[in-house]
Amino acid sequence: MDTLSKCVEAYRKAADLGERQVAVEAIARFMWPKLHRYISAFCPRHAVEDVVQNSLLSIVTHLPEFEGDAQFENWCFRIAHHRLVDYFRVEHRTKIESLDREEIWRIVEASEQTTSMTAEQRETLAEALELIALAKPPCAKALNLRFIAGLSFDELGRAFGKSADAARVQVRRCLELAQQLLSKKGATHV
Amino acid sequence: MSKQEAEAKLEQLNQRLQEGWNNLHSIKESQLEAVRNVVSKQWSEQQKIGAEQKKRDIRHGH
Q: Closest chain A residue to B30 measured between Cα atoms?
């Protein structure tokens, strides 16, 4: 059983308010950065914190209705998606603000607070970024959402209005196209 | 670079970014406080509903 499932189980079994608070706080701490990353992929920066907060409060409010087992994280993202839709209903904004290269590296550097990075790993990440940078729209959007924003295929499908399998095929195809461009670029440098 | 290698590299980037995101955007105390308030309110309501149900059951001899 993973951390999140254990927290949900603890929430269900909580015998008093104190136990329930501990379980919900653990869920909130675990989900906050994930929701933050997901919502940042769609929302203008100034609105991100508010939409994440609304999403988290909706999740907590609806927790007693959650009956699934393994799909809790997906359930949370579905709620966050609804809060995003609510936001765009009011704001009528559809433009995605992707992170620039500098911001991406800032986030990567922050990961070193917990796991240090070798020069080789750094090079791998630079190559991955190069691959995404070479992709052209709409592939750039798909690869950005999958690998920079970290959307699962389920979430990606929801964002594109298609099935998770169709989103997976699209990402694979985009990856192939980006690779071809990378090979061509490499060939021109020889 | 093969397709598998490319995908593996992108997955590494994805994981590294999630880790960085966890460190940069952890939940703040004020945001946790809002969560605690929702839980407390919900708990009180559930206790109230439970107590009323108990009274009804006693009244109906269950």
A: A53
